[in-house]
Specification:
- With 542 residues, the chain is α+β, with helices and mostly antiparallel strands.
- It has 19 helices and 18 strands.
- The strands form three sheets. The protein has a seven-stranded antiparallel sheet with strand order 12-13-16-17-18-14-15, sandwiched between helices.
- A hairpin with a 4-residue loop joins β17 and β18.
- α3 runs antiparallel to α4 and α7 packs parallel to α19.
- It is elongated, with a radius of gyration of 33 Å.
- The C terminus is likely disordered.
Length: 542
């Protein structure tokens, strides 16, 4: 095992070496005794700290400088080729070897073999593979470095991240790779995704112990097994299957997002420092894409909250449609996931479903709030809400993707719907999905002139309308998610009872948990939930 060591050299060719401590000053008994009037009696000291070699001033008259920067009594990290200036005397750090840090993980010991503590800019700018390696696989790595761009513009960020990790595992010859991201609530590292080499049969993600060490130290680290300690450890050390691990910190220009983990097994050559620096550069590129994706997600959440509040404004005009938008959106998202709609299409569907009845804002209150059945002319007037909604959507730049749902959610599979009489596959799929969700909520919701249907009968009505009113594929898929639908209705019933009795203790977060966990949908804003809870519960849908 290599022992810690530091070597300082002066301009007069003298050198000083130590494995733990060097005091610098004019006193002859010091390890580094300098006969110079600009140097104080005890000027500075260099010693091996917990995180490596450091230097600090000891209250000197003329100050201590580390590579041109004046330092005080607070210890400052030293690197190879740094210059320590005490008074007018300069000392160069020509050799530096820290104490190997040994960490117990998964029943064995590993040591830090090298580390990289670079900023985001430095990590990207430092991408300089050796000439031999660049000739061999430089193009592959340049393609891999485009991960930040791919992640930033991916319609499916999880797929893009997994693809990047697969490529990283192949490029570095790793046995396994993983991406850990910091949870915003707990601050703990959580596995976002992991990958294994094609020839490996590992079925579990890597542990997060070493990744946590790297993140806390805010530096990318190369770990190796403590082979020297193996005879004194348990069998798990001897039989351990990781000999070399890279934990590269995912850092954006202003924060650390998580850690990129790569490991090799005992039958592979260990990673080198060059591998560590390449992985550090790759981690910076990945972090750039993840950071932008988070920004896009926050923007989408704000947008969704805005349009949901707009849709709620319509519901507040109609005392019989309380919580209708929330339920239809939840049903539509369950159905969309079941039929395999893409994540991007589901995001659009979620927002457009929230707006599907936005045209009712233009319907006269006498019709919208009528407690009884609508007459023929009144129903014709109510049907115009889809056209009014389409006009509103067309006036808002960037919302045209919501038009098929807003305009087409009352079309019928047999062509007898409105407003355009579209038939079969001519009806946009998103509109067919919302048609099923909207009809189910209408049937199961109470109205002043009739109670809501039992859930079992509502499903029977959907089956009866399959192939005439509804897309058969959507009906079949909705029947498959029936247990989730019934669970959501039971939870809402409990919530309603507590609200009416004044014993409501469920939190906004808990109320939204079912929607977000089962469908991947964005949560309904707290202010909107508050408004929903104040809305009379008998419902009506036109």
């Amino acid at each position: 095992m290599s022992l810690p060591r530091i070597v300082l050299s002066g301009s007069d060719q003298r050198t000083w070496a130590s494995s733990c401590h060097l005091r610098i000053g004019r006193l002859p008994e010091l390890e580094v005794a300098l006969d110079d009037v600009s140097v104080s009696r005890l000027h500075a000291e260099v010693y091996l700290g917990e995180d490596g070699w450091v230097v600090r001033d000891r209250g000197s008259s003329n100050g201590t400088h580390l590579s041109g920067m004046r330092i005080g009594r607070t210890p400052q990290q030293i690197r190879v080729n740094d210059t320590i200036q005490v008074g007018n005397v300069s000392l160069n750090v020509t050799e530096l070897r820290g104490r190997p840090l040994s960490i117990r993980v998964e029943g064995r010991s590993v040591q830090i073999a090298a580390s990289a503590e670079r900023s985001w800019d430095e990590a990207l700018e430092a991408f300089e593979p050796s000439e031999e390696r660049f000739q061999r696989d430089g193009r592959r790595f340049l393609k891999l470095m485009r991960a930040g761009y791919r992640l930033a513009h991916a319609a499916d960020p999880d797929f893009a991240l997994r693809q990047t990790l697969d490529e990283a595992v192949a490029f570095f010859g790793a046995r396994r790779g993983g991406v850990f991201l910091t949870d915003a609530t707990s601050g703990q590292l959580l596995v976002r995704t992991y990958a294994v080499a094609e020839q490996e049969a590992l079925g579990r993600p890597p542990g997060k112990t070493l990744a946590t060490v790297a993140l806390r130290r805010r530096r990318s680290v190369l770990f190796k097994d403590s082979a020297e300690a193996a005879p004194f450890q348990a069998d798990s050390v001897l039989n351990g299957d990781m000999t070399s691990i890279i934990c590269a910190v995912l850092r954006s220009p202003d924060r650390e997002l998580g850690v990129l983990h790569l490991d090799r097994g005992r039958n592979q050559e260990p990673f080198t420092e060059a591998d560590l620096y390449l992985a550090d550069s790759l981690a910076a590129a990945i972090a750039l894409g993840l950071d932008r994706q988070e920004l896009v997600t926050r923007h989408h959440e704000l947008f969704l909250q805005t349009i949901t509040a707009l849709a709620q404004a319509v519901e507040l005009r109609d005392t019989y449609t309380g919580n209708h938008t929330h339920r239809v959106t939840a049903y539509a998202m369950l159905l969309a996931e079941e039929i395999g709609m893409s994540p991007e299409d589901r995001r659009h569907l979620q927002a457009s479903t929230a707006l599907h009845d936005i045209g009712k804002i233009g319907i006269d209150d006498a019709i919208l709030r009528k407690p009884g059945r609508l007459t023929g002319p009144e129903f014709e007037q109510m049907k115009t809400h889809v056209l009014r909604g389409a006009e509103i959507i067309q006036m808002i730049p960037g919302l045209r993707w919501a038009l098929p749902v807003v305009r087409g959610h009352h079309e019928r599979w047999d062509g007898r719907g409105y407003p355009d009489g579209l038939k079969g596959e001519d009806i946009p799929l998103c509109a067919r999905v919302v048609a099923v969700a909207d009809a189910f909520d209408a049937m199961t919701s109470d109205r002043p002139y009739r109670p809501g249907m039992p859930v079992e009968r509502a499903f029977e009505e959907l089956q009866a309308g399959s192939g005439t009113h509804f897309d058969p594929r959507c009906v079949e898929a909705f029947l498959r998610v029936r247990p989730k639908v019934e669970e959501m209705l039971e939870q809402e019933a409990v919530f309603r009872q507590k609200a009416e009795s004044g014993a409501l203790t469920v939190s906004y977060r808990e109320m939204n948990q079912q929607l977000t966990s089962d469908t991947g949908a964005m949560p309904i804003p707290a202010a909107v939930m508050d408004a929903m809870s104040e809305t009379p519960m008998p419902t009506r849908q036109g």
